[in-house]
Amino acid sequence: MDVARLSKQDWLTAALGALAQGGVSAVAVVPLAQQLGVTRGSFYWHFTDRTALLRDALQWWEQQGTIAVIDQVASIADPRDKLRELFRIAITEDPVSGLEPALVAHADDPVVAPILRRVTERRVAFLTEAYAELGLPATRARRQALVAYSAYVGWIQLRRATPDALPEIVGDPEALAYLVDNLIGPTG
Amino acid sequence: MDVARLSKQDWLTAALGALAQGGVSAVAVVPLAQQLGVTRGSFYWHFTDRTALLRDALQWWEQQGTIAVIDQVASIADPRDKLRELFRIAITEDPVSGLEPALVAHADDPVVAPILRRVTERRVAFLTEAYAELGLPATRARRQALVAYSAYVGWIQLRRATPDALPEIVGDPEALAYLVDNLIGPTG
DNA sequence: ACCTGAACACCGTTCAAGT
DNA sequence: ACCTGAACACCGTTCAAGT
């Protein structure tokens, strides 16, 4: 019988888990190799170096996390409903908890920067469209999109910064509704 | 003549600079020692270990950065003016650029967690008071404080995530005014 | 095709010894 | 009081060799 051998995806999945938990520095070859039950040498058959692992893992996340959510709500006709559902999914599901804060913190990282920028621009553009559909003029729609996206980013970061304090952030549905009302903005 | 010798504060200052630039993992003994022109061994006379350096540096930042700003605006009588000035200082000055995102990303870190939590709670409490002075009932004031603080955190993080894109975030005073109007909230 | 094992450079930590 | 210098453990990377 053959021993179980690893695929590239096994490394990517492990890397994303480590990234979310311990930040960019936790994407470390030796600990991941131990966790996967192989030696460090085997890593370098799948990837050229640690940077390549990080880049590929983030690109995979970009596909799965970002684009999937937008696809999920893009078909909702009413812009108000669309925004509500978008924020609800983004705030309550948070598929890989802690990943986004880890990325923003390493915004200067040459691997992280281009991916984070693409994701941010895509999301802000999508929000801007939705606010335009709500009737806001172009400049106003873009500014509202920036403010709403800022509040979203800040909210999920606060939730991490204060795990047991500030209980409204984690649990209270009324506080969440208050946030979403604010995100939907002046015409909501 | 005596050779220049280092104080604890020299290490703290160097550590905060490294932290802001490269995150928690950049607070590294050997690179800092090289930068300061001493050997690694000398570090361990001033601090028990790397963790102590990080902790002391963050406590110093907590004193200087957080409390100083609140003191600076606490005397402003009109709550609307107070909030405007607070957000203006917090958003435009950003004394150690990139420090806060670095901290939020390592919210799980046992050194970072308690300090980040104290700072967050102090700021949210201060905002809550100001919104109460503006006439919001207690629960509403607290929720508005959370939303406003989220938007503030998200905004400074967006600014880092997209350095040359999204130019409104960095430069445009009108976009900033739009943000502050939103932060000041329903009665602003 | 996928992995081991040994090698080397770099950082965290300790500690005896220096001034 | 403050620092050096050598030691050891740990992680990133390389590469020849194994199956």
UniProtKB/TrEMBL annotation, chains A, B:
Keywords attached to this entry: DNA-binding, Transcription, Transcription regulation
Molecular function (Gene Ontology), one example: DNA-binding transcription factor activity
InterPro entries in alphabetical order: Homeodomain-like_sf (IPR009057), HTH-type_TetR-like_transc_reg (IPR050109), HTH_TetR (IPR001647)
Chain residues forming the annotated DNA-binding region: 28-47
Gene3D superfamilies xrefs: Tetracycline Repressor, domain 2
Domain of life (superkingdom): Bacteria
SUPFAM superfamilies xref list: Homeodomain-like
All copies of domain HTH tetR-type, residue ranges: 5-65
Protein name: DNA-binding transcriptional regulator, AcrR family
